[in-house]
Structures are given as structure tokens and as C-alpha cells.
């Protein structure tokens, strides 16, 4: 494992364990078992380190998407296969870290516009493989509206599981497998959403 990867992994673990604000560069260097100078050598600034974390999480997701295969004979089976793929990413602790970084950087007046542009460009690279997988799952010739709706719904289910486990609120719970299957059954049965002309 390279020093750079070691630092990124230590930063992710630190944010998960002690939170965004308490994950100082000194704390991250300590966890990575490197000097503060090594951290500065690899990244220069905390902002550059945070950008590297987001880009690494996105890179791993894109790699997963590009090697993924949608399985199933019916639309319901294929959409469920896609859900499991998306859930691996959106229901993972690293996605929670990515969200914390994005929210904090977005609202920090010191975050450079160049960094936000880089984050947007990296995230956009996932769009093409996601759309290809969505079309495979839906089958036929789905319209853009249907593809977008399905992606946001499936991502929402996966994210709600992550948020529910991270911030347990009494009376609130993550959707269980039966709720996901019920939703997917309804989506698969609908035909009108697959065309923008309706």
C-alpha cells in the first residue's frame, strides 16, 4: 500500500470514528503512522486531502460500475440486481464520509472553486456507466425521465439505510428487504414511466 493510499484510508477511518471536524491533519497522520511532513508531501493541504478522498471513493465506485453485470430474466429481477449494486456503494460507510466532506466543503467559504469543479467532474464520470446499467435493468427503450426516476429512487433507498444507521432516530428505521422488493415489484410492473412521450 502506498503512503498516499495509507493516508486516504486513515482519513476515512478517522472521519468515521471521530467525525469531520476532529479529523485534523495531525490526527490523520497519527492514524496513518506517517509524519505530518509526509502528509503534506503527498497532499499539501487538508483541502487537497479531502478532495483526494472524494476522488478515491468515486474512482472505486466507477470501477465497480464498469465491471458490474445486471442479472435476471425479468425486469423485477434486473432492477433488484441493480439495487444491490448501488446499495454496495450508497449504503457503505465511505459514502457517508464522502457526503460529510462534500457538505462541509460546499459550505466552507475557503473552499476553492477549482476544487468544487474537480469534485463535480469526478462525480460526472459515473453518469455514463450508471445510465448503461439502468437501461440494462429496465430493458426496452426507456426514456430519460424513467431512467432518472429509477436511479434517484434506488439511491434513495440505499442512502436511507445508511442515514438510519448513522443517525438513529426513534420511530425511524431503514427500509427492510421486503420494502425494497415491494417498491421494485411496483416499478417493474409499471410501463408508463419507461417513455418520455407519455
Q: Can you walk through the features of this model?
A:
With 198 residues, this protein is an all-alpha fold. It has two domains: 1-44, Orthogonal Bundle (Arc Repressor Mutant, subunit A), CATH 1.10.10; 47-194, Tetracycline Repressor, domain 2 (Orthogonal Bundle), CATH 1.10.357. The chain contains ten helices and no strands. It has helices at residues 3-18, 25-32, 36-43, 46-67, 75-90, 93-107, 113-124, 127-138, 144-166, 177-189. Helix 1 packs across helix 2 (25-32), helix 4 runs parallel beside helix 7 and helix 8 (127-138) packs across helix 9. It starts with a helix and ends in a 9-residue tail after the last helix. 26% of the residues are buried.
CATH topology (fold) name of the largest domain: Tetracycline Repressor, domain 2
Top CATH class of the largest domain: Mainly Alpha
Global shape: elongated
Total number of domains: 2
Query: Count of DSSP helices?
Result: 10
The count of DSSP E runs of length 2 or more, i.e. the number of strands, is: 0
Residue-averaged pLDDT, rounded? Answer: 86
CATH architectural category of the largest domain:
Orthogonal Bundle
Helix content: over 70%
Spans where pLDDT lies below 50 across 5 or more residues: none
Determine the strand fraction and express it as a percent band: under 5%
SSE string, helices as H and strands as E = HHHHHHHHHH
User: What structural class should be given to the helix and strand makeup?
Assistant: mainly alpha
Distance between the termini: 52 Å
Give the CATH H-level superfamily of the largest domain.
Answer: Tetracycline Repressor, domain 2
Q: How does the major sheet shape up?
A: none
